[in-house]
Amino acid sequence: SPHSPPCVPTPGVPVPTHPISQQLQLTEEEKRLLAQEGVTLPHTLPLTQAEERILKKVRRKIRNKQSAQDSRRRRKEYLDGLESRAAACSAQNQELRKKVQELEQRNGSLLRQLQALIKQTSNKAAQTGTCVLV
């Protein structure tokens, strides 16, 4: 009826704080770890304090495992990046060494040409000077 009396708790009967028969949702990894530890949890909530502790421990293990995997992945990416940079620097170093060698050869060639020109001009100057003096 529209005017039914409000629900009054029965004295001595505890009022549930969780909805009755709420399902406990576990991931496959959580189920696997619980089984590995030989623990079975009820499929409905609420859990006892001991069951809550076990579930928290299992979830912490999963988080730690994921964190370790992430750390290894980041370290591998970092090392791959360093190896790639080292290879690029090594290739550039080889190119620069080759360039230095080419420039040193060119410089030596130009130096010999310059010395030959100086020798020629000094010989001509000496000849010209001799002619003038005579």
Written description of the protein model:
The chain is mainly alpha-helical and 134 residues long. It has a domain at 37-118. It has two helices and no strands. The protein is rod-shaped and about 135 Å long. The relative contact order is 0.05. The model has no long low-confidence stretch (mean pLDDT 85). It comes from Columbina picui. It is found in: Endoplasmic reticulum membrane. One of its GO terms (cellular component) is endoplasmic reticulum membrane.
Uncertain spans: none
The biggest beta sheet is recorded as:
none
Average residue-wise pLDDT: 85
What's the shape?
rod-shaped
Q: Percentage of helical residues?
A: over 70%
* Series of secondary-structure elements, N-terminal to C-terminal: HH
| Class from helix and strand fractions | mainly alpha
Radius of gyration: 44 Å
Please indicate the percent range of residues in DSSP E strands (runs of 2 or more): under 5%
Strand segment tally: 0
SS element count, helices: 2
Beginning-to-end CA distance, first to last residue: 147 Å
What keywords describe this structure?
mainly alpha, single chain, 2 helices, 134 residues
What is this entry, summarized?
With 134 residues, the chain is mainly α.
Record the SSE blueprint.
Blueprint: H1 28-36, H2 49-133
